[in-house]
Design brief:
globular; 2 domains; 6 helices
Amino acid sequence: MNELIFDGRKLRVIERNGQAWLTAVDIAAALGYSRSDKVSRIYQLHANEFRTSMTDLIETPVSGFSGITAEVRIFSLRGAHLIGMFARTKKGAEFRAWVLDQLEAQCAPGKSLMFAWFDAKAAVDAQDKFASMCGKGLSEHRKRKPPLAEKLKALSDQIQPSLLN
């Protein structure tokens, strides 16, 4: 999943731990705010209501500037829903309903634990192939593989719980 569409507008998806996260800038645009920092301001006003699983700051490359990164606030779908609750725009209610639909789709019966495990296994295998094909990419591989392997192990543990515990 690379993007979601809300009201004809593309929202870039950042996938973390098998969940979709959206940038504050994309959420602001979807809600109809003219200023891209409006969602961050809403977050700052209500930060005590957000759990760590709902928002985070990440470093992302700045388009057009090689090697330069910027800190970007992202929100899980639950966090995006809460932003929608505080939004005072005409699109707020429609956005909240859309986010709930996206959450339901993530938990749909068709997306079983086994399918999630196969997806995680494919991601780990693809990362291993990337590392073996590209000697220069080893440092990138060392960064990318641990979270993928951790997700695969977590899914494996859910499928077949350890008898030792």
